[in-house]
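Need tokens for this chain, all 343 residues.
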Amino acid sequence: MNPHAKILGTMVMASAMAMVAAFVPTPSFSSPSAYRSSTWSLASTTESDIFTVTVALTREDGKNDKFQEAISNHPTRKMLERSLKVKMVEMPCIEHATGPDLETFQKMAADDPSFSEYDYIVITSPESAKVFGEVVKSSDLSAKIAAVGKATKKALTQQGFEVDFVPSKADGETLAEELPPVNGMRLNNILYPASAKAPETIKDMLGNRKDASFRVVRLNTYDTVTVTFSEEQLATAMDDVQIACFGSPTAVDAWLANMDRALGIEDLDDDKKKTIPGSNGNTVAVCIGTTTARRCLESGRWLSNDIYYPAKNPGLEGWTDSCFSASGDVMERDFFGQGDLVS
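Here are the structure tokens for all 343 residues:
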């Protein structure tokens, strides 16, 4: 899905609405939604006629600021300010907790502060970088550091660490494919401090590399747990939110767990949940990258064309572009009376 093409489509849609408004004095379209409705009055351009899309920001508490700023300052939002209003609501789905291997990691750092046994330490999220920096001193480290993307690299460099490798695309698959061996003729030892919820992708792909030998030691230094929404948050999610933005597969799972509670379907098996109308909260999903988008698809709660993600540019910029692509489609569907999205 090309986000720039979709954004252009949004602009064309807004222009079409403006032209219709100039010649048609009274008609309106409304969504027959069970959860929400929006009415377009084409006779004027008052505040009430601006389409409002409500976007849920689901990263952990205190970590939505950069995404919120990127949405607020996106050129599409400014160009469409007379047609489209983006209302952002913070709905943190996850919070971090101590991982089962943190104590082991701390002991390793005490016994060998330089981590001289390892060729690389692989860091795959800003939170992993934070936990790493709380245990390891940058001045002691001799192992190289590989960071999954720009945000993780920044989190490391701000703590004084030098990052030796960043893949061409910010995901675990690309990191595992592109990580250069320190010495292709011998075993390359990798330390991978990670979230307990992270998949085994990096470990498995490095272990299967044909051009070099890698031994990966994974330590689950932190964990992510589901935040339980309040009744007010559940009502907002079900009645108002049209777009849910996810920064990790864990956030997807946490959102769906809260939707299950809102619908009273916690005790149903997964296959049955997929058949319940609106089981994703009647939202489209906007994901930070392919891994998170894949989790949405695998859940069976979203149709593939209701999942938006930057296929070629994962990260904050592509995520923001995808948010406006989704906003344009939500606005278009409402305008043409297609109503709410049903999984």
